[in-house]
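My current task is to audit a protein record that another person submitted. Alongside the sequence sits a line of tokens, each denoting a local backbone shape. Where you disagree with what is written, explain briefly why. This is what I was given:
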Amino acid sequence: MQALVIAGHGSHLNPGSSDPAFAHADTIRETGAFDEVRETFWKEEPSFREVLRTLESEEVFVVPLFVSEGYFTEQVIPRELRLEGWDIAAWESDGTSATSATFHASDVDKTVHYCGPVGTHDAMSDVIVQRAKSVTGDPDVGEGFGLAVVGHGTERNENSAKAIEYHADRIRGMDRFDEVQALYMDEEPEVDDVTDYFESEDVVVVPLFVADGFHTQEDIPEDMGITEDYRLGYDVPALVDDTRIWYAGAVGTEPLVADVILERAGEAGADVLDAVEQVRAETGGTDPDAVSDADADADGEVEEGRA
């Protein structure tokens, strides 16, 4: 038997913080790819420390639903799962390239494949683009538009900005949007001045956050000037300095994130090829026939937030 564990932060203050984890787990559960699918949280139940004890499967794939590598993915989750021999070097990552590493949890006698966070996977770039399609209602959105990928930014974790820059660079390389810019809440360039960084008359703003909460629903809308008071709501698009701002909300709520979770598990060895195709077809993802190298690896043909 094999199980999938989706590990999120959760919150005692924001009851909606865990919604994306539950939604993506339900989507994956319906594919039947795993004997068990379990959600677990740092701030909610079931906890990281107990989740392995709730599973019957001997083989477990753990995918952190976090935006970047950092304190939670490198210290908290491995410690709470009691991964024997865990060392960050096992990921061989430069801050955005964590893949997976396999450990044994002897107290529960299980093999645990610990994967890199969802937010740094290449497929997240596709989710950001999908988010732009969703908010504009235009499957061909790109020409004539700018795209802002927004992160929290913090000097305490340099990997936070690395993840934002990584996806902005990848999407810029697609030549789909006229302009692509990485912006931040707590460091330069700041999202407050979003219109200063674009010449396009239309700009899609996608926060690389796992769930909607205070930052995405209150701070960023007010900082950009699309509303004076978040309690009054805001239009989409909203006009700011003669620029139409298409504000998308947290990318983690996009249904296609379920595909990224499967990609992570597949690259760690789970048999998920059929599930990936099913989820992509159901969530408006990329062409189901366009199977990535990573998917092929999962099938044996080739090789693998807020932290």
Remarks:
- The first helix runs from residue 19 to 29.
- Confidence is low (pLDDT under 50) at residues 287-307.
- DSSP finds nine helices and ten strands in the chain.
- The domain at 122-253 is CATH 3.40.50.1400 (Rossmann fold).
